[in-house]
Amino acid sequence: MTITVHHLENSRSQRVLWLLEELDLPYEVIRYARDRKTMLAPPELRRVHPLGKSPLIEDEGRVVAETGAIAEYLVEKADGQLGPPGNREAALRYRHFLHYAEGSMMPPLLAILVVNRLGLLGRPARKPLRAMLDRHLDWLNLELADRPWFAGDMFTAADVMMSFPVEISRHRGGLDHGRPHLMDWLERIHARPAYGRALLAGGAYAYA
């Protein structure tokens, strides 16, 4: 059965398309554009889920929301492909980064977006927020110093989940080649054929 992806431009849902391509699961895309004034999702998404947020998928009569929950759902549907590795330490890292992406990494990035839009009013918060994000980026760069992927030696859905916050960090969080391991990881995920196919499926994406 074909999975329907409700895809909002320049959003977390790009990861869902990428994961579907990596897992070779059949899907179709319904695209939504942001409101050009507010940059929020359009009200049409509320017809799919009351919160009106993307990503959302529909499969076998159910609607699944939240990127991490969708990732776990798709990995299970693909019989565990790209799921937790057999090694316990790697499996623990997999689960950590699968949820760290949204739970720990995205909050300071969203806060930086908000304070930047506040102009002078947001200036006092910029330095502490950047310091918080720098701690995350320094730690992530160190984590990748001794292994190629976030969970371990193998590419997993945890890498898919980590893509959006790292891409946003490159775009507006100061990530550059001063953190070479993290930048190398970013360049390698962008070179994956499935990533390229997902870009074609989703349309314009500002952070690749």
Descriptive overview:
It is an enzyme of class 2 (transferase). It holds the Pfam family GST_N_2. Its EC number is 2.5.1.18. It catalyses: RX + glutathione = an S-substituted glutathione + a halide anion + H(+). By secondary structure, the chain is of the alpha+beta class. The chain has 2 domains: 3-82 and 194-202, Glutaredoxin (3-Layer(aba) Sandwich), CATH 3.40.30; 88-192, Glutathione S-transferase Yfyf (Class Pi), Chain A, domain 2 (Up-down Bundle), CATH 1.20.1050.10. The chain has helices at 13-23, 67-77, 88-117, 123-143, 157-172, 180-190, 193-202, and strands spanning 3-8, 27-32, 56-59, 62-65. Helix 1 links the parallel strand 1 and strand 2 (27-32). Helix 3 runs antiparallel to helix 4 (123-143) and helix 4 (123-143) crosses helix 6.
What's a quick, concise take on this entry?
Helices cover 53% and strands 10% of the residues.
Helix and strand topology:
Elements: E1 3-8, H1 13-23, E2 27-32, E3 56-59, E4 62-65, H2 67-77, H3 88-117, H4 123-143, H5 157-172, H6 180-190, H7 193-202
Parallel strand pairs: 1-2
Antiparallel strand pairs: 1-3, 3-4
In terms of DSSP E residues, the strand content is 5-15%
Report how far apart the termini are. Answer: 29 Å
Mean pLDDT: 95
Please state the overall shape, judged from the principal axes of the Cα atoms.
globular
- Give a count of the beta strands, DSSP E runs of length 2 or more: 4
Looking across the biggest beta sheet, what order are the strands in?
2-1-3-4
Structural class: alpha+beta
Largest beta-sheet details: 4 strands, mixed
- What's the domain count? 2
CATH topology of the largest domain: Glutathione S-transferase Yfyf (Class Pi), Chain A, domain 2
Element pattern in H and E? EHEEEHHHHHH
Question: At CATH's second level, what is the architecture of the largest domain?
Answer: Up-down Bundle
Helix-residue proportion:
40-55%
- Which CATH class of the largest domain is shown? Mainly Alpha
What's the gyration radius in Å? 17 Å
Low-confidence runs (pLDDT<50, min 5 residues)? none
